[in-house]
UniProtKB/TrEMBL annotation:
GO terms for cellular component: membrane. This is Sodium:proton antiporter. Belongs to the monovalent cation:proton antiporter 2 (CPA2) transporter (TC 2.A.37) family. Keywords: Antiport, Ion transport, Membrane, Transmembrane, Transmembrane helix, Transport. Its main location: membrane. One of its GO terms (biological process) is proton transmembrane transport. It is a multi-pass membrane protein. Residues 537-618 form the RCK C-terminal domain.
Amino acid sequence: MEHGPSVASLAIVVLAALLTPILINRLRVSFLPVVVAEIIVGVIIGRSFLDIVDASDPWLNILSTLGFIFLMFLSGLEIDFDAFTQKSSSQKKSKLLKRPLPNTLMLTIGIFLGILALSFLFAFMMQSFGVFDDVFLLVIIISTISLGVVVPTLKEANLITTQMGQVILLVAVIADLATMIMLAFYSQLYADSSQPIWLMAILVGFAILFYFLGRVMHQSQLIRQLNNGTMQIGIRGVFALIIMLVALAEGVGAENILGAFIAGCIVSLLKPDQDTVHKLDSFGYGFFIPIFFIMVGVDLDLPSLFSDNRVFILIPVLLAAFLLSKLIPVGILLRYFDLKRVTAAGFLLTSTLSLIIAAAVIAEEIGMITSAESGMFILSAVIACIITPVVFKQLYPEGENEERSINVTIIGNNQLTVPVAHSIAGGLYHVKLVFHKNYTDSREKNTENLSFNEIPEYSEECLDAINAFDADIVVLGANDSDINWRVAQMAEQHGVERIIYRVDDPTQENAVKESGFELFSTMLSSKTLLRGLIESPNMMQLLSDEETSIYEIQMNNYRYDDMMLRDFPFTGDIIFLRILRGQESLVPHGDTQLFVDDRIFMTGSREYVEELKRELELY
C-alpha cells in the first residue's frame, strides 16, 4: 500500500510550537517575544543544528504558507482606524507633559516622514559604501515597525491608553500601513509577472465591495442568529474573505499577503466584537503562525550564513540604521515628554519583525536577494526584537498610573448638584463645583477633594481660567438650559471624555442624544424613583445605602485581559453582579473571563471599590 507524505516533521514542529511558550514561562524569560522564541527553536531543530525537520515537507509548506497569510491578516486586523479620526488631545493636560500635545495624527505622520527620510538616507549610504545595492528594499526594511511587538509591549506595561502610548501606537500603525503598501509595489515592480500594475485597482475595487457587503451582513439579524453553536457564520465569513482576497491578489499579479492584509483591514473597519477577535487570534497564534515562525528558523542556515563575511558588516549596520532612523525623528517628542520616555519610545519603535521576514521571503522568491542575504535580514530583525522591548521596559519610568484620580467638574449650584458633589468627593473623585455669583449665596469652604469656584459669567475665558475643562467628567447641572448647552459645546471642543447633561425640557432630549452627551432627566429620574419606592421599597433602600450601592467599572487594564474571575487577585469585600460586553449581558461565574472594554457591575464597600477602580480603569 502506497503512503502519502510523512507527517513526522509536522509532528515535531507542532510539538515545538506547544513546548515553546511553556519553556518561556518556566525559564522566566518574559522579555523574549514568543514569536522570536519560536524562530530560535526552529533554528535549533532545523538546518543550523539538529536538522530533524524536513523543510521540503509538503504538509509544512502548506501550513507555513497559511501561517504567513494569517499573520498578515492579523497585522491588518490589529490596525485601529479610529486612531486616525480621534480628536486631538492637545487640550488634555497631564503632569507628564511639558506642554499640550498638538494634533496627534499630524505629529505622528511627521515622525513617520522623518523615519522614511532617514531610511532613504541610510539606504543610499549603504549602497554608496557597497554594503547592499537594493535601495528600495532597504527603505522598506529600515522604515518598518512591528505592530506585533509594539502592541503587546504597550499592553503589558499598561501604557496603550496613555498619551505616550497612543503616539507610539499611531506611529507604528502608520509605518505598518505605509511599508506594506511599499512592499506590494516592490513585488509588483520586480516580480517576473506579465500582469500590468494597474490591475491592482481591481483588488482595491473588490476590497471596497466586500467592505460594504460586510457592513450589511454585520447588521443582519439572520447572520447574528447563525453566529452561534456549530455554525459560527462570522468566522466562516472571515476565512472566506481571506481566501477570496488572497486569490484575487494572486490573480492580478500581486503577492498573496497583500490580499490577506487588506482582508484584515476590512475586518478591522467592520469593528468585530471582542469574542470574534479572540477566536481569530486563537486560530492564528494557536496553530498557523507558530508553524510559520518555526519554519523561518528551520530554513535559516547559520553556519553558512556566518561563513559569509558580509554578515559581520550588514547586521551591525542594519541594527544601527533601525535605531537611528527611529530615535532621531522621535526626538521631536522632547518638546512634550522627558528624555527617558522619549528614548524608550525610540527603542520600542526600533522593534521590527513580521514585515522584514515578509520582505526577505518575497525578495528571495523573486530573485532579488540570495538566501544568505535573506537570512541576514531575518537575523537582524530577530536581534532587534530581543533587545528593544527589554531596553524599553528598563528605560520607561514605572508607576505612571499609581496616583490616578477622576476629576469631575459640576456646573451649577443648586439642590441637585451640591449634595451630589459632597457625596462623591473624596478618595477617587476630585470635584470642582462651578457657579455664577448671581445664582447662589453659598460660601462653603474648599476641601482637599471639593472646591467651590465662583465666576462672573459662563464664558470660555472664565471657565479656562479655573481649568474647568481639565476634567474626566463634566456635569451640566445648572437650572438654565441655555447655559448647559453652551458649556457642553465648549467641553466637547476641549476634548472632555464624558459629558453628562441635565435635561428638564423634554424638547431638548433628541438634540442632546444626537450630540453624544450622556442624558440625565430630572423628570424621568423622579418617575423611576417613585415607581421603585412603590414596587420595591427595600431595593430602593439598598441602592441608596452607601455601603451596598451598585458600582460600575470600565475594564481598561490589559494586565487582567483574558483572566478568569477565579484567578482575579482582587476578591475582597465585593460581589460581581453583571458584566456588559458590547450588546451582551453576562452573569459572572468563576470561569467567566474579563476582557478589556467590559463594563463590570459590582457591590461592596466604597473604599474597596475605589481601590479596584484605580487598578482597572488605568489611563
